[in-house]
Automatic annotation (TrEMBL):
Name the UniProt record assigns to this protein: Short-chain dehydrogenase/reductase SDR
Keywords: Oxidoreductase
GO cellular component terms, A-Z: membrane
Record-linked InterPro entries: NAD(P)-bd_dom_sf, SDR_fam
GO molecular function: oxidoreductase activity
SUPFAM superfamilies the UniProt entry points to: NAD(P)-binding Rossmann-fold domains
Pfam families: adh_short
Source species: Shewanella sediminis (strain HAW-EB3)
Annotated Gene3D superfamilies: NAD(P)-binding Rossmann-like Domain
Family: Belongs to the short-chain dehydrogenases/reductases (SDR) family.
Signal peptide: none
Length: 255
C-alpha cells in the first residue's frame, strides 16, 4: 500500500464532502460510506483520485462491521478512518423514540465503527482513527441524549488511545471537537461560524499533525474552557436564541 488511503464513514454531509475533496486533491484514494451511496456517484466522479462507494447501515451493527471489513479488503488496508456520523434532535417533552435513535447511531453505531477500525488497524500494525465529535459532550445539555452520546464518544476515543499506547502500536486516535456550528448558524454569528472549507482544512491539518484532540475551529477552545468552568446555575441559563426571539420572550415576560 503506497498511496495514502482513507475511509470516510458518513460521507454524505457537506463537511465530509469538503474533507473528501481536499484529501482527493492531495492524491488520497477514498472509500466513502453513506446511507445512499448512489447519491454520491456524481460527486465521486468529480474527484481527481480513485473513489469507492459503499452503503452505511450504522444502526445494524453486524452490517456495518461486515461493510468495513469488505472495504478494508478491497482497499488492501487503509491509513485513515474518519468517522463523521451523528444524529441530533431537540424536543422539550423528551419523548423516548428520538432519544433511542440518537443512542443507537451516536453510541452503539459509533462504538461498532471505532471498535472495528481499531481491530483492523491493530492487525495492520498502524493507522489513524479520527472522529468528528462535538464540544456538546463537555456537559449535559437540552438535547439530553446527544450531549451524553458525545461524552461517550470522547471517553471511547480516549480508551482506544490508551489501548494503542499499551499495545505499543503506532495507531493515532484523533478526537475532533467541533464547535456548535448549527447553533452559530442559527444565531447567524459570523464570529463563530466558519466556512466548511476552512473547517475541513483545520480538521485535515490536525489529522496530519497526528493530534490527539483538537478544537475546530480553534476559537471554540475558549467556549470549551468556559463551558467546563461555569457553575450549573449559570451554565443552565444560556439560551441559543436569536436576538429577536430573546426580545419577544422578554416582552412576554419569559426568562
Ligand atoms: N453540525 C454541527 O453544528 C455540529 C457541531 C458539532 C459537532 N458536530 C458533529 O459532526 C458530526 C457530523 O454532524 P453533521 O452536522 O455534519 O451531521 P449531518 O450533516 O446530519 O451528517 C451526519 C452523518 O451521519 C449519518 N447518519 C445519521 N444517521 C444515520 C443512520 N441512521 N444511518 C447511517 N448514517 C446516518 C448521515 O448519513 P446520511 O446523510 O446518509 O443520512 C451523515 O453522513 C456529528 O458527530 C456531529 O455530532 C456537528
Amino acid at each position: 500500500m503506497t498511496q495514502a488511503t482513507a475511509i470516510i464513514v458518513g460521507a454524505s454531509s457537506l463537511l465530509s464532502r469538503e474533507i473528501a475533496k481536499q484529501l482527493a486533491d492531495q492524491g488520497v484514494e477514498l472509500a466513502l460510506l453513506a446511507q445512499d451511496p448512489d447519491s454520491l456517484q456524481e460527486f465521486a466522479d468529480s474527484l481527481p483520485t480513485q473513489v469507492h462507494l459503499f452503503p452505511l447501515q450504522i444502526v445494524e451493527t453486524q452490517a456495518i462491521i461486515s461493510t468495513l471489513e469488505e472495504v478494508w479488503q478491497q482497499l488492501g488496508g487503509a491509513h485513515l478512518v474518519l468517522v463523521n456520523t451523528g444524529l441530533n434532535s431537540y424536543d422539550p417533552q423528551l419523548p423516548w423514540g428520538p432519544e433511542q435513535d440518537i443512542i443507537t447511531v451516536n453510541v452503539q453505531g459509533f462504538a461498532a465503527v471505532c471498535n472495528t477500525a481499531f481491530r483492523l488497524f491493530r492487525e495492520q500494525g498502524y493507522g489513524q482513527l479520527a472522529a468528528v465529535n462535538s464540544i456538546a459532550g463537555l456537559r449535559g445539555g437540552p438535547s439530553v441524549a446527544y450531549h451524553a452520546s458525545k461524552a461517550f464518544a470522547t471517553n471511547y476515543l480516549e480508551g482506544l488511545s490508551m489501548h494503542a499506547q499499551r499495545l505499543k502500536l503506532p495507531i493515532t486516535i484523533t478526537d475532533i471537537q467541533l464547535g456548535l456550528l448549527d447553533k452559530a448558524a442559527m444565531q447567524q454569528s459570523r464570529l463563530w461560524l466558519s466556512p466548511p472549507d476552512e473547517v475541513a482544512r483545520q480538521i485535515i491539518k490536525a489529522m496530519q499533525g497526528a493530534k490527539r484532540k483538537v478544537y475546530v475551529t480553534k476559537r471554540w477552545r475558549l467556549v470549551a474552557w468556559l463551558t467546563k468552568l461555569l457553575p450549573e446555575f449559570v451554565y443552565n441559563t444560556r439560551h441559543w436564541r436569536t436576538k429577536a426571539e430573546r426580545l419577544a420572550a422578554k416582552a412576554e415576560g419569559k426568562k
